[in-house]
Hints:
- The structure is a homodimer.
- By secondary structure, chain A is of the alpha+beta class.
- Chain A has 3 domains: 21-124, Nucleoside Triphosphate Pyrophosphohydrolase; 135-211, no CATH class; 238-306, Orthogonal Bundle (Arc Repressor Mutant, subunit A), CATH 1.10.10.10.
- Chain A has helices at 2-10, 59-71, 123-126, 138-153, 158-172, 184-193, 219-233, 250-261, 267-276, and strands spanning 19-32, 35-41, 49-51, 77-84, 98-106, 118-122, 280-287, 295-300.
- The first copy, chain A, is 32% helix and 19% strand.
- In chain A, helix 4 (138-153) runs antiparallel to helix 5, helix 5 (158-172) packs antiparallel against helix 6 and helix 6 (184-193) packs antiparallel against helix 7.
- The N and C termini of chain A lie far apart (58 Å).
- The first copy, chain A, is built from 9 helices and 8 strands.
- In chain A, strands 1, 2, 3, 4, 5 and 6 form a 6-stranded mixed β-sheet that branches. Chain A has a two-stranded antiparallel sheet with strand order 7-8.
- At the A-B interface, helix 1, strand 1, strand 3, helix 2 and strand 4 of A face helix 1, strand 1, strand 3, helix 2 and strand 4 of B.
- Chain A binds a DNA duplex through helix 9.
Amino acid sequence: MDDRAKRIRTNRPGGKADTVKVDLTAVVVALSDNEPCVLTIGQTDTLPSGPLALEHRSLQSGLRAWVEEQTGHPLGYIEQLYTFADRDRAGTELEQRVISISYLALTRKEHAAAPSRSCWQSWYDYFPWEDHRAGTPPMVSDVLRPRLIEWADGADDGATRLERRRRAAIAFGFDERPWNEDLALKRYELLYEAALVEEAMRGSVLPPPVRGKSMVADHRRILATGIARLRSKIKYRPVVFELMPPAFTLLQLQRTVEALAGRLIHKSNFRRLIEQHELVEETGDTATETGGRPAKLYRFRHAVLEEGEVAGAKLPLARG
Amino acid sequence: MDDRAKRIRTNRPGGKADTVKVDLTAVVVALSDNEPCVLTIGQTDTLPSGPLALEHRSLQSGLRAWVEEQTGHPLGYIEQLYTFADRDRAGTELEQRVISISYLALTRKEHAAAPSRSCWQSWYDYFPWEDHRAGTPPMVSDVLRPRLIEWADGADDGATRLERRRRAAIAFGFDERPWNEDLALKRYELLYEAALVEEAMRGSVLPPPVRGKSMVADHRRILATGIARLRSKIKYRPVVFELMPPAFTLLQLQRTVEALAGRLIHKSNFRRLIEQHELVEETGDTATETGGRPAKLYRFRHAVLEEGEVAGAKLPLARG
DNA sequence: TGCGCTTATATTCTCATTGAGTATAATCGG
DNA sequence: CCGATTATACTCAATGAGAATATAAGCGCA
Lengths: 320, 320
């Protein structure tokens, strides 16, 4: 049966089995002082990445090897993000197709031995419109909204104009709509489509119309994919703990989630939820850091990882 | 900046940029008479698939081309599933690595013009333990449980034995644990690890210990990935409607979701939820099919797709 | 016609979860 | 010992989920 099927799948006209190069790209996330950071190579706004080679046993091991070689940082938790294969990806080289398999990795900065050529960058440097912890950033209504409306009104027919306005309103929470932090990727893609980010106007002499650092090739899009994935995942799986030190206070945990989500959380409800699901257990020690009453230290209960898909561990993200 | 980064990413020792072949594989799902079906090629237990070729503009278009050529079935909604690159995937051919990019597609059987070489197979033929609509299938406690316990007890040290037992109990809902339909992939991987499915014992002369048709290469694993993705996705995004005819009754809709989830739904709660979220609107007609009071016909409100990520559209799947 | 069968639709009643606000406890620096 | 600061505990209303029951509208057939 195996053989018959193989024949069927390969002996077909038009099936020139062209070869491609595979690029492995990593979005490595860690927290630094309540800022969500991504690992880049030096100051180049480039994510760690490299070609898949024969010596790599698997995609994951290839990725780990590249990240470790380029940044000196060993990886723990990783998860596949997406496989991109835009033909116009690397610009002009059309003779050889390159597909890019991206991964999300969660670690802690301390795990890095030497700073070496690596560099931690707050991801809000690349997406300043994504941080709503201190309220909606002024640029959303001052810059993005008018530019997006301008873009929408530039459409040929009225249906498209309405459609564009609606998409922008949903993605960015215009017109009394709620802000949805999970839509980070859609927002970036919308700005790209509206040619408001630098990547969409490569080759142009005009300055990028919207503030926010750009990245090499499609790396900012990959980063946006990672952010969106992480933001939605922390709501139903206890992955935040990959970013936490062995012992932490509940407030530290809350600040971490807030940093990732880019919005504030209701304190008591957050604590109630964490305790309800028995995600943590007390270490017995207390933290005496800042002024005020000392906080109990907790550690993650690794057992919960084996207790199934932690149903309904929804994090109570506060509303507007 | 683009150029500098490109140099950094490619001029590195050990970076032999080996080329690979890319295989595109589709899990095409449709409903037939309240059975969730997957599109296969003839009777070969093979998913539609083919190599990515230069003439394909993108991964998606390549996939569409292959599926249409092999089955005559045009695709509507598709979504990327996962990229596999097991070195031992295709068996023995180690000189050329093959990675497999898989997609999930949702359609309706009627869309196919001619039956041609395609064939719709109930996915429960491949995963008989996944259908809990008529209660937990006997094979779960009669076959799977003893075999998995046997496998667990075959481990060297006690810790691994406990760990295996726990994993099995979580995945299959042993020991009073609830059944979680979303874990379809974990269940298959567990059975594979325990060498209880045919794919895990290729080359052996022994018969497969667990009932359920196998598929070519790793296609059953890809199918399991698709099932798991679809089962979890119907809970927060209105993708079911891709599988529905233009007009349908609420009961038909419920039966469809039940078929996908492999478990029953509480009727009134289901209707309440659908109406609450305004996912559908009445067509004005009624269905006079079976005996009993005629049911109102509804159509999907496509507007909701543009109303953001349909927050909390959780489907009320009934408990034990 | 009307009775029973079947399916559709509406209503009600808990109980758990969620969002939000308020109160009390413990430490520190003066 | 006071007030600033942070931690932890408790309360309350609104909402949503699960489950059960009631009523409506067709059909077939005596």
